[in-house]
Amino acid sequence: MPEDGAKRRRMPPWMRKALPASGDLEAICQLLKDLRLNTVCQSARCPNRGECFAKRTATFMILGDTCTRNCRFCAVKHGKPPVVDTDEPRRVAEAARRLGLKHVVVTSVTRDDLPDGGAGQFAATINALREVIPGVCVEVLTPDFNGKESSLRIVTEAKPDIFNHNIETVPHLYKIVRPQADYNRSLEVLKRIKEINSSIYTKSGLMVGLGESQEDVLKVMIDLREVGCDIITIGQYLRPSPQHLEIKEFATPETFEWYAQKAKELGFLYVASAPYVRSSYHANKFSEKVLTSTRF
User: Do the domain assignments include residue 9?
Assistant: First the structure.
């Protein structure tokens, strides 16, 4: 994303991204509109959305399009969220069925206004997907639920295959990047999921280019492995608008390779580390590589 004013940063060569073929781009946009569904692809202005939509895949975002938090890296709007739509899980499952998805990723805005943080809606969506698509792999990308044990149990009892909660950045940048979150609380969420149900794969991701060092990122990876995290994604932060945090630097492809190698050495089952990697980008590759051999 281009930077504004005197601090404009030119995109390096390795950040140039080819436009995707049109594919079913218009069709998936119409499907989402017809079923009144949100995607994080659109709401967060993901740079991969054209590519993913063209391939008839998307990350569904439940519980509305308005977040109760205001992280300084995120393009999802914040404010007063809508009333929970109890029919939404059915429509998510219907969209996934029509798209022929075998691996479905479901995320949400943060809903600090709800007693369970929206955990019940996650569980209902998981159940709806399993009813409609036999053998579906379900991945959830959840907020921290303020660390509530009861909320974590609601989601885990629905048995998602993968539970993703993003750490997002290194500890010393939390006050700047995501002031309403807490690094240790996020680690605790991932730890508790494994303690509640060790068969669920856990996943986390972080952005680079916000002023962290490589050693900072390595320490986060070590912390994630200590709480049993199985999968890690690392990508370049891109500024969604001039109102969001500035890019401090563009990590080089060599740096991403270094992160990938260190993550493998630490024992992560699956690693995705590259400039345009995002939490749900090509998420099905893990299920194709690991889950297929263990579940079927």
Answer: no
- Sheet of 137-141: strand order equals 38-39, 59-62, 103-108, 137-141, 162-164, 201-208, 231-236, 270-273
How far is CA 247 from each of CA 72, 106, 213, 237, 288, rounded to the nearest angstrom?
Answer: 12, 28, 14, 7, 34
Domains identified in the chain, total number: 1
Q: Has residue 8 been placed in a domain?
A: no
247-270 tens-digit pLDDT: 999 999 999 999 999 999 999 999
- Domain with residue 183: its CATH number is 3.20.20.70
d(C-alpha 147, C-alpha 87), whole Å:
26
Q: What percent of the chain has pLDDT over 70?
A: 86
What mean pLDDT is predicted for residues 142-157? Answer: 97
Ranges of H-type helices in 113-241: 119-132, 149-157, 174-177, 183-196, 214-226
The parent domain of residue 46 ranges over: 18-295
Round the average pLDDT of the chain to a whole number and report it.
88
Give the three-state DSSP class for 69: coil
| Closest among 271, 165, 182, 168 to 210, alpha carbons compared | 168
Dist CA 85 CA 50 (whole Å)? 27
Ranges assigned E (strand) in the chain: 38-39, 59-62, 103-108, 137-141, 162-164, 201-208, 231-236, 270-273
11-67 residue pLDDT tens: 898 887 766 555 567 788 888 899 999 886 665 566 656 566 656 667 899 999 889
Sign for the pseudo-dihedral over CA of 152, 154, 156, 160: negative
Rounded CA separation 290/257 (Å): 21
